[in-house]
Design goal:
This protein is an alpha/beta fold. Helix content is 36%, strand content 20%. It has 3 domains: 126 residues, NAD(P)-binding Rossmann-like Domain (Rossmann fold), CATH 3.40.50.720; 188 residues, Dihydrodipicolinate Reductase, domain 2 (2-Layer Sandwich), CATH 3.30.360.10; 63 residues, no CATH class. It is built from 16 helices and 15 strands. Helix 1 runs parallel beside helix 2, helix 5 runs antiparallel to helix 15 and helix 9 packs across helix 15. The protein starts with 6 loop residues before the first strand and ends with a helix. It binds nicotinamide-adenine-dinucleotide.
Length: 430
């Protein structure tokens, strides 16, 4: 497709995600120009300025200041924390921006529906950062399903193993540990998964039931004598897998980096001092967390397709099993690590077929190629002819969010929730 000009991007929130997307976009100067960014942390704005490589780059101290400057670009990337998606997205739509919006769309179901309504009214495009839709693994799974090899899909079973350290870092000590201040874990962590499940099945979810709780990261599970902080001389520090002092060495790259800007340069003493007051220095059994550490969803899709999804702190990576009338497709992290293939198709009669997929960037990092895939798709999504549906547009992804809100309702009430009625009731109350 020919284009009148590269897409001009402005960025609200200059943290980890924004830096990933803008760095990928900067590699394609014929398609993207990064022209402005906002963040209360000047060093982060500076980082995006450097990534942009532009002398006319404009930096702002927050979302409000950038949006007060009028429409500076074609697309605004909203990559603030979850609770701070809604307000800048509404304002950006009013200003006539198209939006690349980090997931979740918003943390309240009514806000999600409101953004959908506003985007439609403003006739603007909102693309949601469901990077897994653009990853090599899930694209291959979708391709195999679309080939008809499985026959008719009957059931799907998916899981996400959050991994114990990740659970502790994000959902016990970190940003998403207190549900009332953030959002239910099934939304914050697993809206990717509910999105992928209904995208692969190709049908909407009608009814949902859910069970789950916080059982492990609780005060009564604390080892005898464990103090409030790992820096206070814990008697089991040497053997505890959650010892925060691990941030100094093997958990410095990525984990410490994601919450402490000077992670790469700080001395061990400086990190220890930081752990003495930071949430990430707390004993995992003595935090104020209430996010679940396990949850299961049972789903009924249109046409009687059934599905389950399991989220657990105590496994690593995503797994998938899709049962069809002609065969079964299985795959995920365990297959990749131990069986030399990412996906295996097992026809009910005949020989298995193994599939290995390579992420666009050659590894399983960057969400298995989903990050570069998303940035590549951003250009096409934003330059499609008017009215053409987007692959990860708001219309296609609100349902993924409604599944999570309905799941949480089901978990808390013990009821089976009919999603359409649940959504209608929300829309009435909005
Ligand atoms: N798509 C994915 O796979 C994926 C993966 C991880 C995180 N996320 C989501 O991406 C979002 C960002 O995550 P992150 O890890 O980059 O977070 P982050 O904390 O690294 O970055 C958020 C930034 O927003 C800035 N900010 C706060 N208030 C602001 C304001 N008023 N105006 C402008 N900037 C402001 C913060 O200073 C921070 O730099 C979150 O919603 C998160 O859930 C998505």
């Amino acid at each position: 497709m020919t284009t009148p000009h590269p897409l001009r991007l402005a960025c609200i929130g200059c943290g980890a995600r924004a830096q990933t997307y803008t760095a990928l976009a900067a590699h394609q100067p014929e398609r993207f120009q990064i022209i402005a960014a906002a963040d209360p942390m000047p060093a982060r704005v500076e980082k995006i300025r450097q990534i942009s490589g532009r002398a006319d780059f404009r930096g702002f101290s927050n979302a409000e200041a950038l949006l007060a400057a009028g429409k500076l670009a074609d697309v605004v990337i909203i990559a603030t924390q979850d609770n701070d998606h809604y307000a800048p997205c509404c304002r950006a739509l009013e200003l006539g921006y198209n939006v690349l919006l980090e997931k979740p769309i918003a943390t309240r179901a009514a806000q999600v529906l409101d953004i959908e309504r506003r985007a439609r009214k403003a006739d603007r495009r909102v693309m949601v950062c469901f990077v897994l839709r653009f990853s090599a693994f899930y694209r291959k799974a979708k391709e195999i399903i679309n080939s008809g090899a499985l026959g008719e899909i009957v059931s799907i079973q998916a899981s996400e193993g959050v991994e114990p350290w990740h659970q502790a870092h994000s959902f016990v000590r970190g940003h998403w540990s207190v549900v009332g201040k953030s959002s239910p874990m099934i939304l914050s962590k697993c809206c990717h998964d509910t999105d992928i499940v209904h995208w692969l099945v190709g049908r909407r979810c009608k009814r949902i039931a859910s069970f789950g709780s916080l059982e492990f990261f609780r005060a009564e599970r604390a080892p005898a004598g464990a103090p409030a902080r790992c820096t206070d001389g814990c008697p089991v520090g040497d053997t505890c897998p959650y010892n925060a002092l691990r941030y100094i060495n093997e958990k410095r790259a990525f984990w410490l980096e994601s919450v402490f800007d000077r992670a790469q340069t700080a001395t061990p003493e400086e990190i220890t001092a930081w752990l003495c007051t930071s949430p990430w220095g707390r004993c995992v059994y003595r935090c104020d967390n209430d996010a679940v550490d396990r949850q299961v969803l049972a789903m009924e899709f249109e046409g009687g397709v059934t599905g389950t999804f399991t989220m657990t702190a105590f496994e690593n990576g995503r797994h998938l099993e899709i049962y069809g009338t002609r065969g079964v497709l299985k795959g995920g992290e365990t297959y990749r690590k131990h069986f030399g293939a990412n996906l295996v198709f097992l026809p009910h009669e005949g020989e298995p077929v193994r599939y290995s997929v390579k992420a666009a960037d050659g590894g399983y990092e960057s969400h298995a190629g989903g990050d570069p895939g998303l940035v590549n798709a951003l250009y096409d999504e934003m330059t499609r002819p008017p009215g053409a549906p987007l692959e990860a547009g708001i219309d296609a992804t609100v349902h993924s969010h409604m599944i999570t809100f309905a799941a949480e309702e089901a978990r808390l009430t013990g009821r089976t929730v009919a999603i359409e009625e649940f959504q209608k009731a929300l829309a009435k109350g909005a």
